[in-house]
Amino acid sequence: MSNDQQIEGLSLEGKTAVVTGAAGGIGSVIAQDLARLGAQVVVCDIRVTSAYEVASNLPNASAVEIDLGDPGSVASAIGVIKENVGSVDVLVNNAGWDQVGPFLESDPAVWEKLVAINLKGPIQLTHGLLPDMVEAGWGRLIFISSDAARVGSSGEAVYSACKGGIMAFAKTLARETARSGITSNTVCPGPSDTPLLREISEGNPKLVESLKRAIPIGRLGEPKDISGLVSYLCSPRAAYITGQTISVSGGLTMA
Ligand SMILES: NC(=O)c1ccc[n+]([C@@H]2O[C@H](COP(=O)([O-])OP(=O)(O)OC[C@H]3O[C@@H](n4cnc5c(N)ncnc54)[C@H](O)[C@@H]3O)[C@@H](O)[C@H]2O)c1
After folding, report:
1. Across the chain, what does the average pLDDT equal?
2. This prediction's pTM
3. From the CB of 128, is ligand 1 less than 6 Å away?
4. Does any domain span residue 58?
5. Judging by beta carbons within 10 Å of its beta carbon (0-12, 13-18, 19+), is residue 97 exposed, middle or buried?
6. Does 225 contact ligand 1 (Cβ within 6 A)?
7. In this predicted structure, what is the pLDDT of residue 107?
8. What residues are annotated to the active site?
């Protein structure tokens, strides 16, 4: 008996999963883990070359270019996904983007970009892929938000607003789709060791050390810490968990 058969109901054999931002730190590990559970994975990212690289290392995976900040790009990605794999069973809205700085010094053009990528893009993609889940009577929606949405984060005002919006969106979809066999949950990473955090902490080497001191478990999160929970929430076994917001933060925030 292989390890993944020891607990029943974790397999995603026969399911199709779309993961956005899957060329990146957390998203690529989510894509790998869902593929290991048997899903056919569509690796979506604005960095299409890296997306192809990730997909080429997975069994039964493909890559699709998407710019979540551009409604035309999201619409055409939805078309390509449907054409390539048919209906989608699992959607992990993972892609995100941030530019850190004091709110009073921020530029409205940057607000627009933050809202487009972190809020409107995932809403549009979900709107395009959800009808097939409803029709199939089974589906899993996962939204990667942030602890910034739950407890605030200095320098991330508009990003936090978007991540809070996505959390409320996920809960409402959980209510609207529960009778259709669909669950909708939000996962909030705490500070995690990925290119996004490295970019934010560039020029501020003390930031990571002070974060580690503040985190009860004493280290940054790793992509696999987040993807373990995401994999479980995507599995058939997690059918009775919906509308939840769960932090993966080494205890930095507690519910
Ligand atoms: N790393 C952290 O500390 C942390 C903390 C809280 C929440 N998060 C969230 O976790 C998720 C994954 O972040 P990560 O740390 O892996 O970051 P990352 O920068 O490593 O990966 C993000 C991915 O999203 C892609 N992306 C960016 N803009 C896009 C766009 N317009 N359209 C499509 N794809 C786009 C990037 O190309 C990249 O591959 C994000 O939603 C982020 O907000 C991360």
Report:
1. 96
2. 0.97
3. no
4. yes
5. middle
6. no
7. 98
8. 159
